[in-house]
């Protein structure tokens, strides 16, 4: 896989799966932009250390204008855009009685609307070979735990958007795919957190994923080798949904 001369934008790229993805794409030769909400973390230094160009943009994915502006800043600074990874996600869970319209709106603004807005902003810049990759969740297809009504619904919404956009953008040579991570050891879901053993028990392999294992799947879908893969859902969940 060779991303030399290509530019990737990863939303929510300062920590966790997004950071691993940004660094992996840079290792493979891409220049990368990330967005973040509070802190850019150490990704800028790590990407620079790989000899690639990098830009970090503060842009809360709940703010549609900020998301669109981040796409424009990526192109302004790095000159082009080839790969969009919609990774930033809001994880609001709890009993349905305790979830309200505010939680619904926040979840869908960050997890669904931002992806839509980013694609719209990216499209004028994505040429033949362009790539759009969403980060869904294993719970989009199998919601085994109580409290996931909003989160699972938002991730399931990405399935429909991915398929429809794949149909629409296929004739332009742009692929659109969705990676469904399973439990992945990040700040949002630490492998030593409460309930982690229960989660592990639902997997076939008996462990959490490392962020790099999700990043590897994203990199494949972003690559030229994956040019005939579109509208697909790739579960990287250790067999959680098997
Ligand atoms: P982390 O909490 O480890 O990292 C989240 C990253 O996204 C950080 O860079 C954070 O920036 C950024 N971010 C969070 N909210 C926003 C926002 N509103 N706008 C912009 N950036 C934001 O999360 P994960 O890596 O675990 O999750 C990444 C994606 O993977 C999410 O979509 C999540 O739903 C999905 N996922 C994760 C799983 C897991 O087990 N970890 C399982 C299935 C799916 P900052 O550092 O500034 O806060």
UniProtKB/TrEMBL annotation:
Keywords: Oxidoreductase. One of its GO terms (molecular function) is oxidoreductase activity. The keyword Oxidoreductase applies. It comes from the Bacteria. It holds the Pfam family adh_short_C2. Residues 6-182 form the Ketoreductase domain. InterPro entries: KR_dom, NAD(P)-bd_dom_sf, Sc_DH/Rdtase_CS, SDR_fam. Transmembrane segments: none annotated. PANTHER family: OXIDOREDUCTASE, SHORT-CHAIN DEHYDROGENASE/REDUCTASE FAMILY (AFU_ORTHOLOGUE AFUA_5G02870), SHORT-CHAIN DEHYDROGENASE_REDUCTASE FAMILY PROTEIN. Belongs to the short-chain dehydrogenases/reductases (SDR) family. This is NAD(P)-dependent dehydrogenase (Short-subunit alcohol dehydrogenase family). It comes from Saccharothrix texasensis.
